[in-house]
Amino acid sequence: YLLDLATGDSRRVSPGQGKTTCSFIRPNSSEVLFGSTHHDPRSEELQAAEYALRESGNERRYSWDYDPEMEIWTADEAGELTRLTHERGYDAEGSYSPDGEWIVFSSTRDGYNRTLSAEEKKQLELNASFFGEIYIMRADGSGQRRLTHVDGYDGGPFFFPDGSRIIWRRFDTKGLTAEVWSMKLDGSDQRPLTEFGAMSWAPYVHPSGEYVLFASNKLGFANFEIYMVDVEGSKEPVRVTYTDGFDGLPVPTPDGRKLAWTSTRHQGDGGQIFLADWNHEAARQALVAAPSRVAEGDSLVRHVERLASDELEGRLTGTEGERLAADYIVAELEKVGVKPLAGQEGLRLPFDFTAGTKDVGTTLSLSAGADKESFSGTDKVQALSFSESGQITGEVIFAGYGLVVPESQGFEYDSYATLDVEGKIVLALRYFPEDMDQESRSKLARYSGLRYKALQARERGAKALIVVTGPNSPNGGEVIPMAFDTASSGSGIVAASIDGQVGERLFEFVTDKTLEQAQKALDDGNPHAVGFEIPGVELTLEVKVEREGRVGYNVLGVLPGTASSDDLPVVIIGAHYDHLGHGRAGNSLASKEEAGAIHHGADDNASGVAAVLEAAAQLSAMKHRRDIFFAFWSGEELGLLGSSGFVNGSVFSQERTAAYINLDMVGQMRDNKLVVQAAGSSTAWGGLVERTNVAVGFDIQISSDPYLPTDSTAFNGVSVPTLNLFTGSHEDYHRPSDTADKINYEDLERVARFAALITAKVANLDAEPDFVKVEPKMTQGGGRDTLRAFTGTIPDYASEIQGLLLSGVIGGGPAEEAGLRGGDVIVEFGGQKIANIYDYTYALDAVKVGQPVQVIVERDGERHELTLVPRARK
Fold first, then answer.
1. Residue 748 phi, psi dihedral angles, 5° rounding
2. Which of 364, 500, 715, 858 could bond to 375 as cystine, CB 3.0-4.6 Å?
């Protein structure tokens, strides 16, 4: 009915047949929206039976009727009816957006339009509202789209006065309690505004947009009162009515000066509509005076701020900071009911690793007839980090650069082709030939890693390897720093680095060339410039290395599924929680001014951890057939230690794992872009990602490559379908400036929701995703020690545009000095076309330190040519 407040007259809008409910007047129109069953062929029969029951004097306990024939209709001023919904299931509780162009409503259609399990069928019979979800559609009924995906009844939605958000009531799965929630129009950023633990429902936002009016029986089961709460849910709700019985369904007039609601305060039968003056200023003052509360939506902030705090000192694996981080994660998982894995006593799973390597007294002794000389001190001779400890005496063979390129690469180069190094000590140059053509240099660079050189010497029977940085190379003559190395064992060979003066001393016994001349002969790639024995010289190399063993901890737990079985593979969702500590482990990009400071790692990867914890909270309230494992890895920054140890350990079973979903650096989203990587690892991912994104509305960028510098790679290596969520690199990456205040928490909440939804979808699949092996692209094989040149660019690994997009440049680095900046797209580097990150890596292999390189970038639609001078990488 419509009631004229000026005259008191009323007129019926609905047809007078069937059940009718939930009306709403369309803004700037006389059209009325409502739910009705009048089209049901049995509506007259059912209505007659209802009237007969009432006339008999009998009563039944009141309960809302979720009639599956209920549909949404509109009626114009002439009474002409238009049906907007046609799905079987209860469609009602609709309301218009402020501009009258959209309708938000509740529906149980999910319980009627798909195949249900036996348990779900029973649930539908007992309580159909369990399947109630919020939907949105255009005012003409088109474009219907689901916004909520949580078990239990979601209903009673209304728009905010500015149309920016939706307010609604969310019941628990048993239908006993409800809270007031709000969300964006795309279903993202869902947040609770109340935590009464009672029946809080019928919310409506005041026209000012500052607070929400709602009803709750917080004070007693049968005593509903009206309350108000600020739209952020940051304050404790304020009580508005004080009359025993029922006060509810509050709606203010459009000018905000009056309030209409339903009440039993008249002491008569049934509820009646009341109207009262509303004092907006008094309401504002009451909310200001109300105590603050910590909303559930603030949990992401709390997670990131704790993990990125100074107290945790960068969460380096094996430190007290890592332990405190694990304690926090365990406590949060236990709150949402996550249990230890089968056979485990707790949520922590330990793994051993090498926390550091120290040279404790390496020496080199030279004997050549009457000439005898010893060298010691790390400025003259120093163990390589992967060396075995031991004392080796033997003749010396100079093996040039010590390079071997496999025949499969179509490029022949073998430093040992004419040499017999069995039982001898190999002397080799660091890096690779300086003056070869660019393509050849790029190929050689991939096999110039120190470990790879040590492997080749060892496989040919050498007893030791000595490496010298030639005078023509970057860092010429310098002893190689003893880099942090996390390998749990050495390389099977004694290995050390010497400085240029020691190298020149050895070449004094070579009659026809100096060290510099020997290097120069090799630098142009001359195949006739081969290695040779240094005659009459015997060396004794004694290497003393101490490796510090420590224990790191993964955190893993499980939410059991409804169909848990040893035959049903599980879904794993995870993130790494370790970071760089104070940045002394070799991967820091800190400037000189930042050196030694705490690397907070808010985005890398407190953001991923926070999102997985939030997803765990959401998944604990969602139905899923398969078990869901929650994994928080340590040792990722040291080389995927935790995840690799897990997939190679006794707890993991490839046959029992359906898929792995990883979140790494998801806290600094730009332009609404979420990168979904490793999608090529299964044919199932495309459809799942697309359907999941409907609820959150990201601009999804798909990348098929599963070979990533993050924990998903460990699972891809054992044939498990993987996904990695990523929002891109930035100037704070691996620097102390990666702090909690830089995180975009609103978008992080959406990432967490996306992760929860896609995990739930996989966990409810009848058959697990198939695994597709993606052939790896050619990448650099030797690791960081093959890269000689430093440019100071920070690639945006989230981009797959033509060229290389830069997310930033390192302050004071060559790129910044050359005029490059974040947002530039490098399309040419040193004369080489750049189409992607791989092209750029190859181009970096070929540049020379100190030699200017022409760089062409695209910036704001224009091409710019810049000159960059690479520096030596230490």
1. -60, -35
2. 364
| Cβ–Cβ < 8 Å for 153, 141 | no
> 682 phi and psi, to 5 degrees?
-160, 145
Tokens 């029986």 found at: 217
Residue 521 DSSP class: H
What does the alpha-carbon distance between residue 431 and residue 447 come to, in Å, rounded to a whole number? Answer: 9
Closest CA to 85 of 45, 133, 138, 43: 138
Q: For residue range 64-111, list pLDDT tens digits in order.
A: 789 999 999 999 989 999 999 999 999 999 999 999 999 999 999 999
Tokens representing residue 559 in the block: 């939410």
Q: CB of 310 within 8 A of CB of 598?
A: yes
Residue closest to 384 by CA, chosen among 478, 485, 504, 487: 485
Q: Which residues pair with 230 in a beta bridge?
A: 211
Q: Which two structure tokens, joined as six digits, stand for 382?
A: 């120093």
Measured CA to CA, the distance from residue 48 to residue 16 in angstroms comes to 12
* R_g (Cα) of the chain, nearest Å: 35
What is the C-alpha to C-alpha distance for residues 305 and 101, in angstroms, rounded to an integer? 41
Helix H or strand E encompassing 465 = strand 464-468
For the chain, give the longest Cα–Cα distance: 125
- For CA atoms 629, 635, 636, 640, give the dihedral sign: negative
DSSP code string of 584-653: -SS-----GGGTTS----IIIIIIHHHHHHHHHHHHTTS--SS-EEEEEES-STTTSHHHHHHHTSSS--
What sign does the dihedral 481-486-487-489 (CA atoms) show? Answer: positive
Token couple for 809: 């440049």
Tens of pLDDT, residue by residue over 474-499, are 889 999 988 655 554 567 899 999 99
Q: Which pTM was predicted? A: 0.59
